[in-house]
């Protein structure tokens, strides 16, 4: 079997599963279908065929996705079949480790020859009560430059967000959690250029644990470079998110949008937050701008088309 050029030639199975194959990912339907062809055990083969059939998808979801069962754990559950898998099929059976993308959280004007990222270390428990850890984030967090040279393979590509060329144009940035990363870079850049008119909506669970870059933001507020509006969802009985703060500060948002032609930027988790923020912005347009619901929706779409409203979200 021909190996990808970046791998040692020949390559050990140990090297494959340590550096190349993603044995910690949740396996897909095709994984079980391929496994079934190699199975020498009747009971295991029947189960694998069920998981790869159209009728068995609900059971497969319960087995794999709900508990976030890993490829390695699935192989462990089918020991007779796993023993029968020819090594040359490992590259077809298990996907390669995918590159992870992070927003750069620093400006070259503030930190020359340096790239900083803001990363949450993924760690949680599932219904199996087994701890799950993010592959890339756990590895990065384990590195210690004080114990020797650390080498991280990376590449840099151009970001999608475009900030206004006019120094007098204000920006409204909405970045809950690690979504604040690209805005830290933008704010550092704008502050280094002497630009004011920076408004940041930041949200996290608890002020004492998740208030990323708190000291930096507060210093910029004191110096007059930043308007900071925060939402700490778990610090009170009722949960408060950035969309609630947008509604509460609708006068400020409308002032910046209508009279000063502000640009709006949104970054963060792609689940429910972007839709909730869009609704909050439409609410501002209705309550402060007197637009109807359909007009507010059309206006927000027009802002997106003209790149006055830009989003960068991830799942």
UniProtKB/TrEMBL annotation:
Residues 35-164 form the FAD-binding FR-type domain. Its cofactor is FAD; FMN. Keywords: Cytoplasm, FAD, Flavoprotein, FMN, NADP, Oxidoreductase. It catalyses: 2 oxidized [2Fe-2S]-[protein] + NADPH = 2 reduced [2Fe-2S]-[protein] + NADP(+) + H(+). One of its GO terms (cellular component) is cytosol. One of its GO terms (biological process) is iron-sulfur cluster assembly. Pfam families: FAD_binding_1, NAD_binding_1. GO terms for molecular function: flavin adenine dinucleotide binding; FMN binding; oxidoreductase activity, acting on NAD(P)H. It is found in: Cytoplasm. This is NDOR1 oxidoreductase. The lineage of its organism: Eukaryota, Metazoa, Chordata, Craniata, Vertebrata.
């Amino acid at each position: 079997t021909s190996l990808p050029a970046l791998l040692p030639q020949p390559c050990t199975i140990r090297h494959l599963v340590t550096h190349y194959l993603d044995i910690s990912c949740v396996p897909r339907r095709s994984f079980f279908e391929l496994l079934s062809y190699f199975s020498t055990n009747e009971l295991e083969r029947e189960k694998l065929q069920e998981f790869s059939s159209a009728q068995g998808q609900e059971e497969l979801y319960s087995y794999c996705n709900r508990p976030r069962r890993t490829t390695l754990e699935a192989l462990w559950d089918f020991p007779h079949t796993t023993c029968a898998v020819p090594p040359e099929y490992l590259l077809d059976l298990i996907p390669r480790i995918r590159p992870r993308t992070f927003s750069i959280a620093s400006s070259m004007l503030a930190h020359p020859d340096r790239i900083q990222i803001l990363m949450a270390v993924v760690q949680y428990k599932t219904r199996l009560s087994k701890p799950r850890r993010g592959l890339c984030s756990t590895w990065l967090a384990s590195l210690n430059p004080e114990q020797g040279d650390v080498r991280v393979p990376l590449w840099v590509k151009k970001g999608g967000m475009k900030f206004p060329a006019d120094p007098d144009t204000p920006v409204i940035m909405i970045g809950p959690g690690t979504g604040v990363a690209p805005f830290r870079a933008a704010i550092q850049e704008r502050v280094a250029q002497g630009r004011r008119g920076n408004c940041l909506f930041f949200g996290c669970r608890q002020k004492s644990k998740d208030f990323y870059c708190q000291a930096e933001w507060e210093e910029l507020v004191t110096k007059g470079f930043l308007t900071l509006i925060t939402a700490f969802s778990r610090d009170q009985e009722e949960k408060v998110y950035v969309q609630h703060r947008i509604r509460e500060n609708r006068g400020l948002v409308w002032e910046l949008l209508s009279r000063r032609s502000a640009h709006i930027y949104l970054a963060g988790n792609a689940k429910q937050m972007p839709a909730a923020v869009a609704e909050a912005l439409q609410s501002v347009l209705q309550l402060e701008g007197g637009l109807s619901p359909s007009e507010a929706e059309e206006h927000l779409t027009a802002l997106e088309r003209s790149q006055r409203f830009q989003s960068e979200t991830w799942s």
